[in-house]
Amino acid sequence: MEKELLNEQEIERILTRITHEILEKNKGAQNICLIGIVTGGVYLAERIKNKIKETEGIDVPLGVLDISFYRDDINISKKRKTIKPTNIPFSIDNRTVILVDDVLFTGRSTRAAMDALMDFGRPAQIQLAVLIDRGHRELPIMANYTGKYIPTSREEKIKVNFKETTGKDSVLLIKQ
Ligand code: 5GP
Ligand code: MG
Fold first, then answer.
1. ipTM value > 0.95
2. Is 67 part of a structural domain of the chain?
3. 44 Cβ closer than 6 Å to some ligand 1 atom
């Protein structure tokens, strides 16, 4: 069974709000960079980058992080890796890094992303932005910017559709 939780317009408004929260918390965009976690986080990070450009006129550096290598509890998908491999073509030293992911669940991906980032440099700060927080944390991790908190059962899944891949943005709750 599928239930639509967010439509295109709602997702757009959420991303506008998160962008403004990021700008408010960091007093502008001067010292920040965005890192999208493959693959959904990359689309979201690109949207936020565009919105920052529109409101502040600043081109924030955008990197891509694939953490499947750092996750010890999931199978590495070869297919995923060929789509968007890790690419951070700028220094993160002394910058505020904003990690962007589509869904926050146990927190293990975020932990792995933070581990991976430490290999790239020494950020001044790391913040986390997610579209959906579905609960069930196994680590002491929370997002600085949350699109929507959706309490789920472990069996339920969130499906995030992106214009870039399916032609339309939406968030669905999938019940088995
Ligand atoms: P965690 O590592 O916090 O357990 O899970 C977060 C990662 O797994 C995110 O990168 C997210 O894309 C993916 N994920 C976990 N649960 C879901 C879900 O219900 N739906 C989607 N689309 N991704 C999920
Ligand atoms: Mg993901």
1. yes
2. yes
3. no
